[in-house]
Design a protein that fits this description.
By secondary structure, the chain is α+β, with helices and mostly antiparallel strands. It is 23% helix and 35% strand.
Length: 181
């Protein structure tokens, strides 16, 4: 990690500072996909909006994961990028949502020797456990089958909100950098 960069977290609604963390890119950056408790309370009180509707306002692909790296839900941008319906995502292990080749093994997502090196899983779990956000972490996904895996390069960011982790997909492409849609 380069020294000196600070990631400033702010509420996307009111602009309130939510704290700072070291930037993994070494540059000063602002991450705006957070929400303060006051704004969250006013948005979600009385069920004025659904979580998916809130996530759709962020304008970037975001999935919500729990401490077991199971996807609770995803916004429309993430569903489109992953080519999934909400029913295919909600309550599903992240490896199954991202179509990880290792998740198709009999042990399933999170239970194979390969899972210990999964950057998606490790980043989500670290953020859940420590509360530390991660910004634009490179990850490589072996998608499809082990016989013919498709290598997908990703950049992911995470931020803990309450008892869940917001996982933003900053970039998703193949080995040549082409965006996969």
């Amino acid at each position: 990690m380069a020294e000196g960069g600070v990631m400033k977290r702010i509420c996307a609604w009111c602009g309130k500072e939510l704290g700072t963390a070291l930037s993994e890119t070494g540059h000063d950056e602002v991450i705006t996909h957070g929400i303060c408790e006051t704004c969250a309370g006013s948005l979600f009180s009385g069920a004025r909006t659904t979580l998916r509707s809130f996530l759709d306002t962020l304008g970037v692909p975001v999935v919500v994961a729990n401490g077991a790296a199971t996807i609770n839900t995803a916004n429309s941008a993430a569903l489109a990028l992953l080519r999934k319906d909400a029913a295919d995502v909600d309550g599903t292990k992240s490896g199954d949502v991202f179509e990880c080749a290792f998740a198709a093994l009999p042990q399933g997502c999170g239970q194979t020797i390969h899972c210990s090196g999964c950057m998606i899983r490790n980043t989500v779990m670290d953020t859940y456990r420590t509360g530390n956000s991660h910004l634009k972490c490179p990850a490589t996904l072996k998608r499809g089958t082990l016989a013919q895996p498709e290598h997908i390069d990703l950049l992911i960011s995470t931020e803990k909100q309450g008892d869940v982790v917001l996982l933003r997909i900053d970039r998703m492409g193949d080995e040549d950098g082409e965006k996969v849609t």
